[in-house]
Amino acid sequence: MTFDEIGKLLLILGGFIALMGALFLLGGKFLPWLGHLPGDISFRRGNVSVYFPIATSIILSIVLTVVLNLLIRLFK
Fold it and tell me: Taking the C-alpha atoms of 7, 8, 13 and 17 in order, what is their torsion angle to the nearest 10 degrees?
């Protein structure tokens, strides 16, 4: 890899990380149901709380798979 290719890769990765950060910051405001789906499991006992976002993880995985596949086909 040349320095130009590495530079482009770092810029793309940095942009992707910034986009993901913005989505996490704004996600709670625009998608309040995300993280509180019927398949998400949470336990609370005393001072301990455990949360397993199973349904949320599956939905996010499907959505990100579709989006990334579209992006890969678009830029191929």
Answer: 90
**The domain containing residue 14 runs over which residues?**
1-31
Residues 63 and 76 in one domain: yes
In DSSP terms, 34 is beta-bridged to: none
One domain, residues 23 and 59: no
Whether the predicted model's global pTM rises above the 0.90 cut: no
- Tell me if 44 sits within 8 A of 62, measured CB to CB: no
Query: Would you say 40 and 54 are in contact if contact means Cβ atoms under 8 Å apart?
Result: yes
Percentage, residues of the chain above pLDDT 90 = 42
